[in-house]
# Entry
Amino acid sequence: MRFMFLIHTAAEAAPTPALMTAMHAMAQREVAAGRMIADAGLSSAADAKRVQVRSRKLTVLDGPFAETKEVVGGFAIFELPDMAAAEASARAFMDLHREHMPDWEGVCEIRQIAGSQVELIRAGG
# Structure
């Protein structure tokens, strides 16, 4: 089963060097074990764009977005046996933040990936 972790935070704050070192060590272990497929931090919401459809009209909005109360700061994709394993992994990741950036607040949202058009296309489907 594949899972996406989305890291939400109320304010964009760069990880401390200690947190970056700890996250890198965790990522190395997860990749070596075959569990982590991809991960990345995201650029600032100030540089983002939103392409939306509302009332049948397509518009493009430039960031930053005043109504945004939190931002998605990064993501990771894992291959794990079940939701319990995904939760354990997310807890370990968030514990790194608690340990290395005690004042940071955020959420790791875990979502099971339901299907992939890319994988279907690559498989010839």
Remarks:
- Residues 4 and 17 are 25 Å apart (CA to CA).
- The chain has one domain: 2-122.
- The radius of gyration is 17 Å.
- Helices lie at 17-32, 83-100, 117-122.
